[in-house]
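Section 5: illustrative case.
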């Protein structure tokens, strides 16, 4: 054991190597446990069956007629916000 290296400095790489070995072992065990035949993503049918079916047609457009006072207020708001640019 070199004299200028402390015990903790020698122990550090050993601990890191052990942690890496445990991580790789756990990862391998995790990946071996996942089989395509058991995976819910590869099952038949829709993968997101809990969600409702989406509409095939877009929703109808809605339009609201504004009163002259509302049009003036909207125009004032647009002018107010446009001055900041």
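Designed sequence:
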């Amino acid at each position: 054991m070199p004299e200028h290296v402390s015990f903790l400095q020698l122990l550090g790489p050993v601990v890191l190597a052990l942690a890496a070995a445990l991580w790789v072992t756990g990862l391998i065990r995790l990946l071996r446990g996942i089989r395509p035949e058991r995976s819910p993503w590869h099952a038949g049918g829709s993968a997101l069956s809990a969600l409702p079916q989406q509409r095939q047609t877009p929703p109808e457009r809605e339009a609201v007629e504004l009163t002259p006072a509302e049009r003036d207020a909207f125009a004032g708001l647009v002018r107010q916000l446009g001055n900041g640019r």
